[in-house]
Amino acid sequence: MMDGIITPYDRLTLIHHHERPTVRDYIPMIFTDVYELHGDRLYSDDKAIFGGIGRLDGIPVTIIAEVKGRDLNENKEVNFAMPHPEGYRKALRLAHQAEKFHRPVINFIDTPGAYCGVEAEERGQGEAIARCLYEFMQLRTPVISVVLGEGGSGGALALGVCDELCMLENAIYSVISPRGFASLIWKDAGRERDACDIMHITAEDAVALGVAEQIIPESEGGAHTDPEITAENIHRSLSISLKDKMSKDIDELLLSRYNRFRSVGEFTQMDTTVDQGG
Amino acid sequence: MTMEELFRQVTQKFYNDDQPKEPDFKCPRCQKTTPAKTMQENMLVCPVCGYSSRLTARDRLRLTCDKDSFTETEAGMTSLNPIDFPDYEEKIADLREKTGLAEAVVTGICTIHNERCVIAVMDSHFMMASMGSVVGEKIARAFELAGNEGLPIVIFTASGGARMQEGLVSLMQMAKTSGAAAKFSEKGGLYITVLTDPTTGGVTASFASLGDVIIAEPKVLIGFAGRRVIEGTIKQQLPEDFQSAEFMLKNGFVDMIVERRNMRRTIAHLIRLHRGEVR
Ligand SMILES: [Zn+2]
Question: How many CB pairs under 8 A join A and B?
């Protein structure tokens, strides 16, 4: 960081700061009456995804979150926030429960990506994510998602089909990790910094690309310097968004949720007119 | 048209072209070599192990649609460069030239054994059929067309995953296509997915896994994460059938494995069965 100019790579460093608050830190600062709810009712309970109910400003809400650990032991416990299919299926179970009881859903995204492993493939990682995209798109209750740190690929998007996407100031959202990108494009995982420069992964980029609506300021120097202030900022944004979305007709809300994604894409017909989205 | 006629058509097309003779086919599954001519006569399926090799969209349409029944939609759609990725336009232009395709998916309306349907065919010869703006948009429009026309939709999937050169815009196509599938399903439409070699990454994690009926071709690769990524994670060799059509069937993620020569008939039967007519 030089002369107050913060590069995408600086942001990547900040979100990997060992003291960066996790959703476990934020939840008690933002919500009251929180009860954790476990399990997907199909296979097991994935600790990489937190599920629960609580209140935001007194309003009952469902909370679904990708959980990073605060130290190595916690990280082993939560598989470094890389969910298995049962994590996504737990999320879906709780989302449908929220729909039934007319509770809005608040998703917190913070993952390097969905877990890549033999068991994850055996239990249908692809199908689990696809099902989240499909079901959240039609979920008849407001959904607000917040990217806390890493918004890694399909594993992040699974909790990102929402009416409004907020990103913390230093959070990133990307199709692949900068490291993975460097290794794929240049066959050199070490060129992470170069990848950050061309990938358009910052909160500002996400807003410019029409993917995110809000940027939530962090405390000066990054969220770890003052988690309480950052939590307050998250709380304030959620309060405003929630009131706004809850006041809308649900069919209108679903249509605009669909259009948030339907309109992303840049293409042209026959090399003549420029068409942004459909 | 009979299967024999279809074989002949493909074979003739192949040998009448003024192109250098195709090299023999080396099967990536059983490693056995088969002469190109034999492969052509066998619908490009390995005669030794049954692996259904990769087809161009053009060949797939010839083998699938009734003769002269296919009308292409959105033919000229091409990608812009949403994140100003270096040399992306040049790469696309180069591939258009090389493959004769405008993008990695061809969409349209056809009949299959007289059953009218919307069809989308992904072609791995175009940037590994990675999903960017155009693939996402054409798939979404295909669902919308099927919904508006009251037709079933059949999608032959193949993909290496996301289009890295389009960054976050590429990722969003997963939500776009899944949303389009959901909207189509709400209307009561039938969506048949045919998973072909290879179906991976963001396409597996979106519309490819959302068919009402999911068919796979024998021995094809189907999965979410890349094999090398997983080997890197677990630091051990993976079993032979890992992420194959057969593996997906065993684990409950595809409905049936259908050989290429039976594909047309199977799709037509499935469409008829979903119309709800008693006969
Ligand atoms: Zn073979």
Answer: 190
